[in-house]
Amino acid sequence: MNLKALVKSLLLRKFTSGLLILQLAITLALVVNSVILALDTRESLSRDTGMDNENILLVSLHPTSGNYRDFNYYRSVVAEDLSQLARLPGVKSVSAMNQLPLRPRGALRNVHDLDNPEQERTDTYLQDVKVFFGNENLADALGLSLLEGRYLNQSDQRDFGSDERPNIVISQSLKQSLYGDNPAIGQETNRGRIVGVIRDITFNPTLPEDKQYAVFDNTLMEYVYVARYYVLSVEPGQMSSVRNQVSDTILAVQPERDIFRVFTMAEHLKRFYRDDQGLADLFLLLCGLMLLVTAISSYAYAQFHISRQKKYIGIRRALGARKRDILLYVLTENALNCGLGCLLGMVTVIGFNVLLSQYIDLSKPEPLLFLLACGIMFIAGLVATWLPAVSTSNIPPVIATRTV
What we know:
With 404 residues, the protein is of the alpha+beta class. The chain has 13 helices and 11 strands. It has 2 domains: 3-46 and 274-401, no CATH class; 65-255, no CATH class. It has helices spanning 3-12, 14-46, 71-86, 119-122, 138-142, 172-179, 239-253, 265-272, 274-308, 310-318, 323-357, 367-393, 397-401, and strands at residues 56-63, 91-97, 108-109, 129-133, 146-149, 167-171, 188-189, 192-198, 214-217, 229-234, 257-264. One of its GO terms (cellular component) is plasma membrane.
């Protein structure tokens, strides 16, 4: 096979060849980055959040009655809600909570050691720390693991309007930022006195794993109007039964409430990544369409230009070229186009990745993924040009030499 002749042939039709090569490069870039996005989303959904996502039930609700303006009334209703929910068969623990983990926004406060307020300048993540209000059952409801000290209990509940500094529990990564390897128990922060440190869970999926900062404060019943979620830890296999009874149980205590959603922590995680999953599905669909269009373009390119070269092919057949030689010529020409498209694709893959990274979190392309995508392109091109190649190889020499 004369490679120099092939290159010369492509240069004679450089415009159409260039368009096909550009299309191949763009398709390659779309394929690689679509797969990266899909793999990133799948990894995010399967990541360990530190919680038993399938067995944690969440209830989002809000009162609609003016009676709830009376805090004592509000507190009594919430207390009765929790009592009735805890009695449901299959419920291990239940608590109210002001906000949910696995969410970037919410109740955010600055945190620093009382003797070192400059910490917020050296670690800017300390300026927006999630603060969770709950009761003594929140640790069990979320399945938190204690690393140091103790969790909050009934004695940590402050009286309404008390000036006493609260006891708090902080996350492992927050403790590491504030005190490093030194003990944190008994230390004073601007948010309260530390009595415990819990193992990190995913409080904010958009932040690094070592920046999952959180503070837990047992003052929920003082600020009960922020209690818009109930959290239930459910026995394995009992989720469906408990889920069906939750709304009726709450409304039986006091019906003037809107229950917006009853959902598991796993569904909450999936909902957080819903846009990423939708974007990944869209990109994969576009990827399939681009592969189809590129295959059609390769077929049309081969069919058109081979029909223009019948006389040349006929001469080669008359001079002794076999069918397989013609077949190899056509397929090699396609392989050359694919190879040039993949070389240009190296640039377009990186360019697309950098461009998309400005708007979404996207991993960098790996060489193995790039090679696999190139293999798919070569196979698609081979399939697309096989029929024109076989048709061309069957041209009789006598008919071909008479072609004008």
